[in-house]
Amino acid sequence: MLLYLIPKSRVNFNLENMKHLLLLLFFSATVFSQKTTETFVSTKLGESREITIGLPASYEKNPNKQYPILILLDGDYLFDPFFGALNYGAYWDDLPETIIVGISQNKNDERTDDSTYDDLNGVPSKKGASFFEFIGGELLPYIEKKYHVAPFRIIAGHDITAGYLNFYLYKENPVFNAYISLSPELAPEMEVRIPEKLAKLKQPVFYYQSSGEGDLKDVKEGIKTLDTNIKQVVNPMLNYKYEEFKGASHYSSVLYSIPNALYQFFDCYKPISMAEYTEKIAVLQNGYVKYLTDKYDGIEKTLGFKVPIRSTDFKAIEAAILKNKAYQELDDLSQIARKNYPKSILADYELALMYEKLGDTKKAAKAYQKAAQLNEIGDLTKDLMLEKFDEMQSLTPKKK
Fold this sequence. Notes:
This protein has helices at 15-30, 75-91, 110-114, 127-146, 160-164, 190-199, 217-230, 253-265, 274-281, 288-303, 311-323, 329-340, 346-357, 361-371, 382-395, and strands at 34-42, 47-55, 67-72, 99-103, 149-158, 178-182, 205-212, 238-245. The chain is α/β, with parallel strands linked by helices. The protein has two domains: 8-269, Rossmann fold; 274-395, Serine Threonine Protein Phosphatase 5, Tetratricopeptide repeat (Alpha Horseshoe), CATH 1.25.40.10. Strand 3 (67-72), helix 2 and strand 4 (99-103) form a beta-alpha-beta unit. Helix 6 runs parallel beside helix 7 (217-230), helix 11 (311-323) packs antiparallel against helix 12 (329-340) and helix 12 runs antiparallel to helix 13.
């Protein structure tokens, strides 16, 4: 491992960094309720290793829900920053709830031994080879057997462990779907081998690497060479991003990098934003409901797990339909709502709204009345449905 002149205890954070750190730690302490540390006995390593597991607060309440998994090298100091960032994003539903597994590497220079590679052929050797097998052959199977996880795996590390995690890309079928490489110290030939492997990908891979202005010159040169080579790769399976943070040290750059990497990986997961609505949905001539189903099919295809369509996204599509007077599409929206929220007001409300806009107040009143008997969702309340029922009743011609 290369040595840095500024020790971790003397890293200078500006006020904004400190605010971000305190916010992340606040979410670490309050939102995630299940954080446990256990001793893992490894036959591959021939020793025990401490691991810390963070489960989402909703884990016990959702036995059928699958969660992405994040394996953290340098888990002893990377766990809390990732823990807080993921919980902050999940609180706003911008990031999916994720199972975090941090591997402790702070005893007797474990992180250096774990990252050992052969200087000649540039692949894991000695303890590094055993550690490689420990993660892929023992730890991942253990976590995936014990917890209900989605088939989306992320791995992250810092400096020497960030360089080491790239070895998983050398496999023909990479074990991980996403890689977070923070100020990596690269093994021999990695600047060439990684782009070669990325060019041959047959499955989607997300790759993020970063550096700070305060990183050592030799480290930054390797990172920038790798960045240049990756940017020449033409492969639709690759989602790549590199950032260098001005004014950031080797350690403070980690706090800038973590949320950026996570939001890169889970960009498709986010609910419909005002910008997405304005620029992509409201301008369509038709196909609003198809846009919605395609969005969620894309999430499942990209991330490997199914996400229920958010009620707020139904409302966004409804708004676009009303804006463009494509009222018949409310029927399609109703059918999708019935599949996703069969016991809620939503499906019958959308149907009632269609009848109302088409001028059939009798059918609208009947649909609003039915909706009032179902479960409330978002701002759709039973009182609102009854008000709409009365309104439609008053507009319906009386029989003579």
